[in-house]
Amino acid sequence: MSIDALGKLHGVLSTTGASFVPDGVSGNALSLTRSERGYVIFGDVLPLLNQAFSISAWIRVPNGDISVQSAVIAKHNPGTSNGYGLTLNQVGSYGLPRKASAFVASTVAYPIAPTAINDAQWHHLVMAYAPDDSLRLFVDGSPSEASSTAWPGIPSPSRLIIGGLDSAGTLTGTFNGLIDDVQIYDAALTDLEVDTLRANPGVALGSPTLPPLQVHPPGGYFTNSVTVPMVTSVPLGEIRYTIDGTEPTTDSPRYTLSLQFFARTLLKARVFVNGFPVSEVESAEYLPDLGVRIEPTGGLFTNSVEVTMATRLPAAVVRYTTDGADPLATSMLYSEPVRFTAAATVKARAFLNNFPVSDVLRAGLRRVYALDDGIPPEWREKYFGPDYATDPRAAADADPDSDTSSNLQEYTVDTHPLDPLSGFAVGVRALPEIRFASVPGQKYRILRRVRVDGPSRVVIDNLTATTSDIRYVDASIVDPAGFYIVEPVQ
Predict the structure, then answer these.
(1) Which helix (H) or strand (E) holds 103?
(2) Would you state the pLDDT for residue 430?
(3) Among 8, 136, 213, 395, which lies 20 to 30 A Cα-Cα from 16?
(4) Strand, helix or coil at 195?
(5) Distance (Å, rounded) from C-alpha 208 to C-alpha 222?
(6) What end-to-end distance do the CA atoms of the chain give, in Å?
(7) Is 271 helix (H, G, I), strand (E, B) or coil?
(8) CA angle at residue 304 from 300 to 307, to 5 degrees?
(9) 458-463: average pLDDT
């Protein structure tokens, strides 16, 4: 038996050619063998007359399979206008080899998707029917690949069947391959709902396991304009959003209708219930496709980042610069990902026969030097300002005042990282000798700590520098562990 996980429409497997196998998109999958006439029959159910409905299914057919009359799911008596079906390949005088198609009542309105699906890979199919509007066919997500006018529903005497046809009471298995996660809805699914099902195999719309907030598309490039719907699975949830880079609050605009953007836009959205946030902030950046693309589009990175560039224009090449100048026909030719380890401004442009055929696209990349490395943000901001994270001087191992002491050492002993005379910590260069940069005539005091949080011991209280490089031997040292602190004496 084939169990209906959400309702009570359980199916019955044919005695041959139908079985469950592992490795479906969500648990086991239904395996149907056409030569053995495999199918699943449900009886005279779901007439779906004069109402909106959608059918979602995952399929995988053998490479090169072009079996005619191949039905994924159908309630249809062949040869007459009736019922509905989601089909593959040539179906009578309709359909095309290797392609998916769908119909409601009439084969006149018969959308055929252009994507070839007989490649032994899993594909997600959705037919969405809205009376007095359209029948749309989706393959592997939105947007729909084909559509037709909505033909009025016509009753079918046949029974609902997966993987076959019921012709005047005669059951025939017509599908060859795997079918999984078949879902039927009493509404015409939106693009976002189609993408939700594709991204969450085995999960039904409205399930509590769905993400609390989904934004479609989740960013990327667009031509002319982009329409962005959002949906929440949270009961009584309301979506608030911003497009100015700030975090959404209860005072931000409330989402009611799909948004439309014509220029580069950073969208941030969050779900609220009774004035309290109940989701994380979702961010999506939309960029007009100028004919050239840069990934990533900019932003922060740690250590290093690989930048890729591309153009959608046939025969065109991409040239780029990293010095802030606009690319010319003589600029660097992009051929492979470019790695950056420091801040950079990348500008790219498409060229054809040395003539520019796109606008200039810019991506600003900034390296993050200040991480969770033992130095609190407040200390860094005090000395390096609010942009300390991208300031190379703020790195833990940096020595911006050239006093031989790193920022981590300066923080440890509470000295000024930009003032070489504020005191600093030095390590032992060659036991028991210490060495540090000095100012001739300046007096210094040298202390020693065994542990960072331990007490300081005065090694010498007053040492006058006669050169710019002091070397001092601590004859009292026994344990080489620890470090020295040097403080100027006023």
Answers:
(1) strand 100-104
(2) 46
(3) 8
(4) helix
(5) 32
(6) 91
(7) strand
(8) 80
(9) 88
